[in-house]
Amino acid sequence: MTAQLLVVSGTSTDVGKTVAVAALAAAATAAGLRVGVCKAAQTGVAPGEPGDLAEVQRLVGPLPVREPARYPEPLAPETAAARAGTAPVTLEAIAAAVADLAAVADLVLVEGAGGVLVRLAPDLTVLDVAAHLAADLIVVTDPGLGTLNHTELTVRAAESAGVRVRGLVIGSWPADPDLAMRCNLEDLPRLTGTPIVARVPAGSGRLPRPDFRSAAPGWVHPDLVAPALG
To answer: How far apart are CA 205 and CA 79, in angstroms?
Structure first.
């Protein structure tokens, strides 16, 4: 069976991508899939410190992971690499990391950095990675006011690059959503033509691993991982 590849990006930074990746990984694991996770480029973390992949493993458990590049300052990867005086991550390095994971996994999740047009390197974006891998895109978005514009722009950019958007994930759904949030549940799919495939409750990243693993399958639409079972 060939591994399914999903690239996970956001409408911006701090929309809950890493916890969303963990939720998708937990749901797929519960469905019986072997899951691997790649972080295309980690920033804002010093050598030896736990990064986003460690957070995914903390919530889900031991998974095969790859991190092709790491830079200490919390900036876009292109800028962080330049300021660190190191080479930017390459498309070849990301593709090789994904291939390593695909050899041992049924589903490989590739987490980007920030939004889809954030530069991983001077001529490399998350959309370039998705296009090269022939992977579908999952867009993690905020539930509140302003998300319609950000999400539609993201989906249009992906479509213009020839990248299929599989679905939207609400990265932090509150226990008491306001009017705009409730309306956005209908407006986001209507305006983007893309279904909401998961809603991750706010604060989920603070759950103990057993609670996170048991709850996550209920946040994710089962059809999202169903194709990987074929």
So the answer is: 28
* pLDDT tens digits in sequence order for the chain, 230 residues long: 589 999 999 998 889 999 999 999 999 999 999 999 999 999 999 988 999 999 999 999 999 999 999 999 999 999 999 999 999 999 999 999 999 999 999 999 999 998 999 999 999 999 999 999 999 999 999 999 999 999 999 999 999 999 999 999 999 999 999 999 999 999 999 999 999 999 999 999 999 999 999 999 999 999 887 655 44
* CATH, domain 4-229, list 3.40.50.300, 1.20.140.10, 3.40.630.40, 1.10.132.60: 3.40.50.300
* Given the residues 22, 33, 39, 224, the one annotated as active site: 39
- The closest of 49, 47, 55 to 18, measured between CA atoms, is 55
**In the chain, where are the structural domains located?**
4-229
Look at residues 220, 105, 213 and name the one whose alpha carbon lies nearest to residue 166.
220
Q: Looking at this protein, which amino acid is placed at residue 102? A: A
Q: Is 39 a catalytic residue?
A: yes
Helix (H) or strand (E) holding 151: helix 147-160
Indicate the length of the chain as a whole number.
Answer: 230
